[in-house]
Design a protein that fits this description.
Layout: H1 4-12, E1 16-25, E2 31-42, E3 46-48, H2 54-57, H3 62-83, E4 90-94, H4 96-99, H5 104-113, E5 123-128, H6 136-148, E6 152-158, H7 164-170, E7 175-178, H8 180-183, H9 190-205, E8 209-212, H10 218-226, E9 231-232, E10 241-242, H11 246-253
Bound molecules: guanosine-5'-monophosphate (2 copies) and sodium ion (NA).
The site of sodium ion (NA) has 4 residues, from loops.
Length: 254
C-alpha cells in the first residue's frame, strides 16, 4: 500500500492534479464556478481519488503541504482560465489538519499574494462543518480572517455533523452545501424533502445561499427547482473533469 514517503515523493514529482466539477444555477443556466477535486496520477495505478491517499496523511504535516499545493494549483488554474477570457470561481476543499494551523489565514494571504491579477473572491474555501469540532471560537475567528482576505467560504456536507445549526450560526459561510445523503432520496422520501425545505428557510434567514450536492438525475433537479433550491452540483450536471475540458463544457452548457 501507499506510504507517507510515496506521497511525499509524488507531490514533489508533480503527480497530483486537480479535476473540476461545475456548480450551476439550474433556473438561470448560469455556471457559478467549479470545485477543485484532488487526484493522484499514479505512474502504475492510474488516476486515484482522495480516498486512496488522503487518509494516509490526514493527521500529518504533509497534509498541510499538499493542501497549500492545492490552493496554489487552483489559483494557477483561475489565472489560466482568466487569460482565456473565462472568469470562473474555483472552490478548494480545506482539510481539518490545515485549519488547525493558527497561521492558516496568513499562509492563504501569502498564496494569494503570488496572484495579484486574481480577485480573491474567485477563490472559495470549502470547509467541513466537522472541522469546527475542536474550538469553535478559534476556528470561527480563523475563517473570519480568511473572509477578510476576500475569499468565499462554503460549509461542506452540511447537515451531517452534530451541531449543524451552531455552525450555521457561528461560521462566516457564504454558502451551505447540503450533503448528498439528503438529496439522494428526495423523490421518494418526504422527510428528506422536509429537511431540505427547512435548510432552505434557515439559510435564507441567515443570508446564506444553498447548493445541493449529488444531484444525479434530471428528476432530482426538477424536484429541487420546485422547492426553490436553484443551485446544484452532481453527476447529473457534470462529473469532475480535467481542467482542459471545462471551458468547452461551460460553452456548451450556456
Ligand atoms: O474527489 P472525490 O469526488 O472522490 O472526493 C472525495 C472526497 O475527498 C470528498 O469528500 C472531497 O471533499 C475530498 N477532497 C477532494 N479533493 C480534496 C482536496 O484537495 N483536499 C481535501 N482535504 N479533500 C479533498
Ligand atoms: O464532500 P464533497 O462535497 O467534497 O464531495 C465531493 C465528492 O462527491 C467527490 O467524490 C465527487 O466525485 C462526488 N460526487 C459529486 N457529484 C456526485 C453525484 O452526483 N453523486 C455521487 N454519488 N457522488 C458525487
Ligand atoms: Na467539497
Amino acid at each position: 500500500h501507499e506510504s507517507l514517503e510515496h506521497l511525499r515523493a509524488a507531490l514533489h514529482a508533480g503527480e497530483f492534479v486537480l479535476f473540476f466539477q461545475p456548480k450551476v444555477n439550474m433556473r438561470t443556466g448560469e455556471v457559478l464556478g467549479a470545485e477543485a477535486l484532488l487526484r493522484w496520477q499514479h505512474p502504475q495505478q492510474g488516476l486515484l481519488p482522495p480516498a486512496h491517499f488522503l487518509p494516509i496523511i490526514e493527521e500529518h504535516p504533509l497534509a498541510v503541504e499538499l493542501g497549500n499545493w492545492v490552493i496554489d494549483a487552483a489559483l494557477q488554474q483561475i489565472r489560466e482560465w482568466q487569460q482565456q477570457g473565462l472568469s470562473l470561481p474555483v472552490s478548494v476543499n480545506i482539510g481539518a489538519r490545515q485549519l488547525r494551523q493558527r497561521d492558516f489565514a496568513r499562509q492563504l494571504q501569502e498564496l494569494l499574494g503570488h496572484y495579484p491579477d486574481i480577485a480573491p473572491r474567485l477563490l472559495e474555501l470549502e470547509v467541513l462543518e466537522t472541522s469546527a469540532l475542536g474550538d469553535l471560537a478559534q476556528i470561527s475567528q480563523l475563517l473570519e480572517d480568511c473572509r477578510g482576505l476576500g475569499v468565499g467560504l462554503s460549509l461542506d456536507d452540511f447537515g451531517t455533523g452534530y451541531s449543524s445549526l451552531t455552525y450555521l450560526k457561528r461560521l462566516p459561510a457564504t454558502i451551505v452545501k447540503v450533503d448528498q445523503s439528503f438529496i439522494r432520496d428526495i423523490l421518494e422520501d418526504p422527510e428528506d424533502l422536509a429537511i431540505l425545505d427547512g435548510i432552505l428557510g434557515l439559510a435564507s434567514a441567515f443570508g446564506r445561499q444553498v447548493i445541493a450536492e449529488g444531484v444525479e438525475t434530471r428528476e432530482h433537479g426538477d424536484m429541487l427547482l420546485r422547492i426553490g433550491c436553484d443551485l446544484a452540483q452532481g453527476y447529473g450536471i457534470a462529473r469532475p473533469m480535467p481542467a482542459a475540458e471545462l471551458p468547452a463544457w461551460v460553452a456548451r452548457w450556456r
